[in-house]
Amino acid sequence: MTQDKNNQYHHGDVPTALMAAALLRIKQDGVEKLSLRALARDIGVSQTAPYRHFKDKRCLLVELARSGFAELANRQQQAIPAEFNLKTLIAVGIAYLEFAKEFPEQYKLMFGTKIENRCEHAGLMESSMKSFEVILNLAIKGVESGFLIEKEPAHMARCLWSNVHGLASLLIDGFYNNLETDIDDFLRQQIAFNIRGISKDLVDLDY
Amino acid sequence: MTQDKNNQYHHGDVPTALMAAALLRIKQDGVEKLSLRALARDIGVSQTAPYRHFKDKRCLLVELARSGFAELANRQQQAIPAEFNLKTLIAVGIAYLEFAKEFPEQYKLMFGTKIENRCEHAGLMESSMKSFEVILNLAIKGVESGFLIEKEPAHMARCLWSNVHGLASLLIDGFYNNLETDIDDFLRQQIAFNIRGISKDLVDLDY
DNA sequence: TTTTATATGTTAACACTGTCAACACTGAGC
DNA sequence: GCTCAGTGTTGACAGTGTTAACATATAAAA
After folding, report:
1. For position B9, what pLDDT does the model report?
2. Is the CB of B48 under 7 A from strand D?
3. Number of CB pairs < 8 Å for A and B?
4. Segment B34-41 long-range contacts (CB within 8 Å, at least 24 positions apart)
């Protein structure tokens, strides 16, 4: 914190400024065109300043993805109502898709191929695990409550996950653009189908 | 076709050579690092020679994706047995996943975000539609035969598609790496769950 | 307070990329 | 044989990620 904020040599908080700028940039131009130099220009520092805070571009992307998973987990958790039933799964699925719709570029970063060797980044893995655990806990509860088939809850969870991820991906990448019906109704129906597939009885979910 | 093949000024068939080289490159280094200049070097032409055959890099990627969809459609079609029942859907789903496993980088290109404004590329759209139509026809047949719920066959098809796409994506991006069970069993089970969700009765698919 | 060390920021440079304009060669049809 | 369109080449420009060497500001140590 310098006295003279206008003539400051030190920026103050380059990392968070970079993240904010990056979120803006990817929202505008897509994650594909994101450039470190442009980010540096955006926040008014030299082109190599970011390297004091991120080892390389990949690390900045990883951090973007990590925070994305954190936000996703948070939203999923928020979507769980007090009373648990099969519709809870739909609610969480919808929350998931809402996130993907709101932050498509961040979502691409989280799951896409832009980040290679994600396993090497512990923080990212941990964050994505936490997001998955929200679904996993629901599956466990579902099996315990007798709503879901008595298979591995992990498999139930992965089933839900892949279903909702498939929907999110196709949605983001524009494969549902020329849909005749309302997109939200459609998504709700798709999730409901999937839940029907792992629910114990042949329920009629009025999605 | 020059007489002297060794001192040839003209390469002969740059486009197909480029495609072959590109397929090799993305298989080795991933689609993210693909560079036009490297491709040109690979096939032994100057760095700007590709521009005589592809307007820009994007067009080359589009062609890669287009041929991918064609191959995918072909494999799906091949996987359909003479006799139709619910298991047919599983078989096609498995064929789909086999393709994704065999050509992960091409798959990423086909669905991922690397190609922006895919709608502008007519050939690509047509090719991807054809791939979808294979699934759509199955859904129609499924509704006609009374195996599937009497909803929009298009919705049934999209349900199958997003399910299998979700699995493929997560598989490719390494989210199933630390799976305890056999991956093929797992995938088969996941597809079966999904089909159970859109089948008319509560069938017990012995996947 | 002065000194020192560490964190942070800058400039200059390298190798690489996509792409364009200008030029050169080759082969087919007149 | 000449023309010309198709194909290939060279050279250049702007942009990128990244490193090394240098500069400054702040916090800790003296």
Report:
1. 62
2. yes
3. 126
4. B34/B61, B36/B60
- pTM for the model: 0.92
What does the pLDDT read at residue A203?
A: 84
Q: Specify the long-range contacts of residues B10-14, CB closer than 8 Å, at least 24 apart.
A: B11/B43, B11/B44, B11/B45, B11/B49, B14/B43, B14/B45, B14/B49, B14/B50, B14/B52, B14/B53
Q: What's the mean pLDDT in A85-94? A: 94
Report the DSSP beta bridge partners of residue B199: B148
* pLDDT above 60: residue B138: yes
User: How confident is residue B117, by pLDDT bands cut at 50, 70 and 90?
Assistant: confident
- Please count the residues of chain B: 207
User: Which of chain A's residues have a Cβ under 8 Å away from the Cβ of B198?
Assistant: 193, 196-197
Maximum CA pair distance of chain B? 69
Token representation of residue B34: 């693909």
Residues of chain A with Cβ-Cβ distance to B100 below 8 Å are none
User: Which long-range contacts (C-beta less than 8 Å, at least 24 apart) are formed by A17-21?
Assistant: A17/A43, A18/A43, A18/A50, A18/A53, A18/A54, A18/A60, A19/A60, A19/A63, A19/A64, A19/A67
